[in-house]
Amino acid sequence: MNGTEFNAEKTRDTLVELIRDYTKKAGVGRVVIGISGGKDSSTAAALCARALGPQNVYGIMLPDNVQSDIADSRRICECLGIQAKTVNIGKIHEALKEAGADARLHIAEGKPHHGDPWYHETWVSDMCLDFLDEVLGRK
Questions:
Q1: Terminus of the chain with fewer CB atoms < 10 Å: N or C?
Q2: CB contact at 8 A, 68 and 43
Q3: Tens-digit pLDDT string for the chain (139 aa)
């Protein structure tokens, strides 16, 4: 084999070991992964399931209102044997767009939102963390 040939099995095994090493160093044994149904998230989910075991992979699907190919995402989770949850973020996305437009308007007018120009970003960050806690059953 010359240096330009691709060995899929070797590459897969290397990535699986990297995932195992990374999660071990991070002190975690389970992962949450976004599943869109596309090639990237499907490959990542398959690698995680192989590396950590399907029982340690939680797939989350976040459609924005209607997602025509959401069935593909569900099939990926079923085929891999991973837990899955669908949370429609359509209303959240609309609210964030409205809040973002409002915050940009205040900043453009020289009025930082709640006295802190980074308030909006902090609020979004906290909201995302609360959302993950809820999905993972920690609330």
A1: N
A2: no
A3: 566 788 999 999 999 999 999 999 989 999 999 998 888 999 999 999 999 999 999 999 988 888 888 899 999 999 999 999 999 988 887 887 777 665 555 544 444 444 444 444 444 445 555 555 565 565 5
Residue 65 and residue 17 share a domain: yes
Distance CA 59, CA 94 (A): 23
Structural domain boundaries enclosing 131? 90-139
CA atoms within 13 A on the CB side of 128: 9
d(CA 62, CA 131): 12
Asked whether residue 81 falls in the same domain as residue 112, the answer is: no
